[in-house]
Amino acid sequence: MSIDLEQYSKYSKPGPRYTSYPTALEFSEDFKYEKYINYLKEGKDKLSLYVHLPFCRSACYFCGCNVVFTSKEDKLSRYSEYLKKEIDILANHIDTNREVIQFHFGGGTPTYYSAYELDEIMKHIKKRFPNFSKDAEISVEIDPRFFNQEQMEVFKQHGFNRISFGVQDFNKRVQEAVHRNQPYDLTKEAVDLARKYGINSINVDLIYGLPYQNLESFKETLSQVLTLDPDRLAVFNYAHVPWLKKTMRKFDETTLPSPTVKLEIFKYTIDFLTNNGYKMIGMDHFAKPEDELFTAIKKGELHRNFQGYTTKGGANLIGIGLTSIGEGARYYAQNTKDMKAYEAAIDSGRLPFERGVELSDDDYIRKQVIMELMANFSIDIKRVEKELGINFKEYFAKSLEALQEFIDEGLVTLSEDKLKVSQTGTLLIRNIAMPFDAYMQKYEGSKKSFSKTV
Ligand SMILES: C[S@@+](CC[C@H](N)C(=O)[O-])C[C@H]1O[C@@H](n2cnc3c(N)ncnc32)[C@H](O)[C@@H]1O
Ligand code: SF4
Fold first, then answer.
1. Peptide linkage before 22 cis (omega within 30 of 0)
2. Which end of the chain is more exposed for a tag (fewer CB within 10 A), N or C?
3. Which is it for strands 55-56 and 68-69: parallel, antiparallel or unpaired?
4. How far is ligand 1, taken at its centre, from the CA of residue 385, in Å?
């Protein structure tokens, strides 16, 4: 289907990616330490543990992650000692017999750590949280430029069954501009190594919207990525937030692709991957049809959280390490971003928790609706009314008014029992979710709040 994408570039405006609702801009110190500890103590849900290993050797200029750049090994060892102490403190405040159904090493570059240190950290986690379920999803983000067989052996020993590789783009010019030299062959070796050790869920991250990218260059990257035969792909819209991330200021903004080109690239990506046997999952993920993410969509069980899309919706996410974010049904909690404060908290026997938000009833209702939209591109109105005890059209009268322009454009259809986003509408899903966000007005006109939606 050929569509005129130019007309949709008008929707290019700042907007959240809704990995949480309320978004991180609403996190504050009003959510107190004692309250957080209470949530931990009283929680009964199964656990999803996220451990942040923030270090990287050098900066990719596009990077929006919470990273500490260093070449000093003693910094890494010092942090892992603190991490273990944090895990000990956490274990004093939580029922450690709760089942762990998900574990994730994120970064930074987790594999900047040696095999030995990764092993030590994992052993410590399992000592304190011994109840990993048999089919727990155990995953790690790997930069192929930092990955060796010894590390893979450690991951295998500890039952890792998912690996996500950062690729971003294979084009030389783009790689130079973003300061990330990563040849195809090196990436292929990394993927082969993981497969050799029996990892059968391999994800590859790509980004569109980077300097010098255009449709032709991205077509080539996609073809090359396909030869790696990933089980999943994440194709992220580059979040350009130079007011938050200094390295992004190194880009000459005139080399960034325009909103129309970005839409073209993403539209092509959807068609290309769909024609090659992948299914689109949510806003930016793709998976093979046999992947559980896709089966979850069919059952309406796909969820969205800080790690993107997941099938483990009901779990209580606990963030461990610098800047990590945790999530319970009624709260979000974030650790400090400052290494000194992180160490000081742990030295005084406290968790490095800094801020967060407790969800009001209204937050809770809007969160369910926004996440359903982001995950399934539709809202089952009758089910939402039953589960949340509201009259949908009355409760969201204002939101639906604001949504009218999308309905007029045929990007959304609204019937008695269903709100449904059209195929083209999925390209603008962040814009379509925004009318349901009660905090959006606060940021009207502010250019330094969120990255652009298109
Ligand atoms: C922590 S990194 C992945 C692991 C490893 N550090 C690497 O780069 O290979 C997580 C992913 O976030 C994505 N990412 C980072 N900065 C981004 C940005 N500004 N906009 C969109 N995606 C971004 C990249 O695709 C990256 O692979
Ligand atoms: S993209 Fe990955 S390797 Fe690059 S700076 Fe960010 S976290 Fe580090």
1. yes
2. N
3. parallel
4. 37
232 within 8 A of 291, measured Cβ to Cβ? yes
Distance 63 CA to ligand 1 centre (A): 6
CA–CA distances in Å: residue 50 to residues 44, 319, 412? 17, 5, 35
Give the whole-angstrom CA distance, residue 251 versus residue 160. Answer: 36
pLDDT at 137: 95
Token output for 106: 């994120």
Residue type (1 letter), 314: G
Q: Are 301 and 293 in contact (CB under 8 A)?
A: no
Identity of the amino acid at 122: M
DSSP 8-state symbol, 188:
H
User: Vertex 368, ends 363 and 369: CA angle to 5°?
Assistant: 100
Q: Under 8 Å CB-to-CB from 363, ≥6 apart: which residues? A: 21, 22, 357, 438
Amino acid at 233: L
353-358 β-sheet, strand order: 279-281, 285-287, 232-237, 202-208, 162-168, 132-142, 100-107, 47-53, 316-320, 325-328, 331-335, 353-358
* Phi/psi at 374 (5° precision): -65, -30
CA 276, 278, 280 angle in degrees (round to 5)? 130
* Half-sphere exposure in the Cβ direction for 228 (13 Å, CA): 31
DSSP state of 222: H
The Cα 332–Cα 101 span in angstroms is 19
Tokens representing 367 are: 């969160």
What percentage of the chain's residues is helix, strand, coil (to nearest 5)? Answer: 45, 20, 35
CB of residue 166 inside a 6 A radius of ligand 2: yes
Which residues lie with the beta carbon below 6 Å from any ligand 1 atom?
A: 62-65, 107, 109, 141, 143, 166, 168, 205, 207, 236, 238-239
CA distances from 329 to 20, 322, 367 (A): 11, 22, 10
Q: Hunting for tokens 């973003």 — which residue is that?
A: 178
Ranges of the chain whose pLDDT falls below 70: 1-3
Q: Can you give the pLDDT at residue 311?
A: 84
CA of 400 to the centre of ligand 2 (A): 39
User: Distance between CA 251 and CA 228 in Å, rounded?
Assistant: 29
What are the two backbone dihedrals, phi and then psi, of residue 413, each rounded to the nearest 5 degrees? -120, 145
The amino acid at 385: E
CA distance linking residue 454 with residue 451, whole number of Å: 9
Neighbours of 276 (CB within 10 A): 12
Write out pLDDT tens, residues 316-374: 999 999 999 999 999 999 999 999 999 999 999 999 999 999 999 999 999 999 999 99
